[in-house]
Automatic annotation (TrEMBL):
This is Thioredoxin. SUPFAM superfamilies: Thioredoxin-like (SSF52833). The record marks 34, 41-42 as: Contributes to redox potential value. Keywords: Disulfide bond, Electron transport, Redox-active center, Transport. It comes from Halorubrum rubrum. The active site is at residues 40, 43. Coiled coil: none annotated. The lineage of its organism: Archaea, Methanobacteriati, Methanobacteriota, Stenosarchaea group, Halobacteria. The keyword S-adenosyl-L-methionine does not apply. It holds the Pfam family Thioredoxin. The keyword rRNA-binding does not apply. Disulfide bonds join 40-43.
């Protein structure tokens, strides 16, 4: 799968409609999906690292609010938050549960970028 002509966003993009999830993931070669909740302390602590990955790598970052999109969270086996999935060419390539360092996030996506 090749990246579409649409450029990779330099900020995390919030998922509005669950029906758009597959399209959002398919738009880019590598997508870091952050399953989070506004009330989650570790999610809030990770926000600067997630934003840095969006701004400084060629991976797209998609944020999914688990309170708003419970069905998607269940579909992807999210049992604790934050849960971060790395999609490469539309397929789950990596899964991280719990707070992660910026370096860990960068390493997870950079291993998938060409």
């Amino acid at each position: 799968m090749t990246q579409t002509s649409e450029s990779v966003p330099t900020e995390p993009v919030g998922l509005e409609e669950a029906a758009d999830f597959d399209d959002r993931v398919a738009e880019h070669d590598v997508v870091l999906v952050d399953f989070y909740a506004d009330w989650c302390g570790p999610c809030q602590m990770m926000e600067p690292a997630v934003e840095a990955v969006a701004a400084e790598t060629d991976a797209a970052v998609l944020k999914v609010d688990v309170d708003r999109h419970q069905g998607l969270a269940g579909e992807y086996g999210v049992q604790g938050i934050p849960t971060l999935l790395v999609f490469a060419d539309g397929e789950v390539a990596d899964r991280m549960v719990g707070a992660q360092t910026e370096d860990a996030l960068r390493e997870a996506v950079s291993g998938r970028l060409e």
